């Protein structure tokens, strides 16, 4: 497997050095692995901190900036960051108004953020936490670690970030974030396996002519393998899974997300099928975002996330955002 | 009696065994996880060994507590907090005694394993590190040749995870498809117990 890297051990640090080169509006601490808005802490505003394993770029570092995250901490590839990074990020983000941790529901992330929350509170930071667990492919929550956090993370970070930017207090920002998570569902599909720099060979074997349904974002194999389907068929499988789990009763935000190695040409074609499928089901797409946002290294494939919105969350979604990967308004 | 140097040698032996078996652990993890268990533990135990070679703490408890803190600060994922908690709780239970008996170590490890179970919410049979640690601690507390018995029990426990269906951690997402693979956490736990037996045998 050919990769554009120096060594597997330096992949994350090298990427952070690149972030620093490309984004002078961020403070990138390569040594301690923390990315912070240059103007943080922002007086009078709640700080928003997230983090997780690397390999999902632009999540989370690409979402640091006005209107979204105050700080992010990247772990090793597919590995939760450590509490030290999270505490550092919380201290950098805290203006005195408190900090919200946005945590994807994986055992490692939850354990490390819990430890970090305790340590940061000892340092005097007021903390709230929201868990993102939107992946409907995990059906058997009683006998698993629970539903995984995937595409909805983008919605939670954007909308909570907008609420914080608007000056909402910590409790309210946390409540908005929880509501977004509860209103979101995702389903993902892999057309290829994924290769981590440390291993150097594909994580699972996906034969030609097959696809994997219900994958997560770490190259963990999915729950079911089927003969290859068309874009239209995949859209229907994904939408059915998402809509059956939580039938929308109002307009939705739609994220048509690429896993990293699927060309935008294919992804836009898939977005058309998702749009068709929503229209056929009588669901109004208030906004549709298409692109590679919550990725899985070099995996080909896609995921669909629907998030039902009311007027307030739609207004927060539309509010200006200035980050490396998401920017609109001003 | 076991002194601080014994514990220092144990952890350095852990680093060597993890180093030797890193590729195997990552391979096990790629079957039912995300292919990084070996490299993550390698990073952690390398940091532990370096710190203990530079400035070893004076008591068994302090050696374990320092090692646990370093694992939490360097490993990440679930294994960082879990192994970190195992060593920290064991170390704290040993207090500031300059030397401890094997029986006392067995007691303290029991407290450490209980803390791991509480933190991770897992039970034996869930296909996790507990499936190697529980029988190892049991053997350590009762057998005639406690260290060798603990190693054997941990290795047997790790192999016994093969037919289990994972109910915790990332492997749990696979449901039935997790059956037939050894749990990488149980495998690394067996290595750590193996290192203990190796150092005890001299």
TrEMBL record, chain B:
Q: Name one GO biological process term.
A: glycerol catabolic process
Q: Which residue numbers delimit the DhaL domain? A: 5-198
Q: Which GO terms label this protein's molecular function in UniProt?
A: glycerone kinase activity
- GO cellular component term, pick one: cytosol
* Record carries keyword Kinase: yes
The alphabetized UniProt keywords are: Kinase, Transferase
Q: Does the keyword Transferase apply?
A: yes
Q: Which Pfam families does the UniProt entry name for this protein?
A: Dak2 (PF02734)
Show the InterPro entries listed in the entry.
Answer: DhaK_L_YcgS, DhaL_dom, DhaL_dom_sf, Dihydroxyacetone_Kinase
Looking up NCBIfam families in the UniProt record yields: dha_L_ycgS (TIGR02365)
Protein name as it appears in the record: Dihydroxyacetone kinase subunit L
- Identify the species of origin: Streptomyces inusitatus
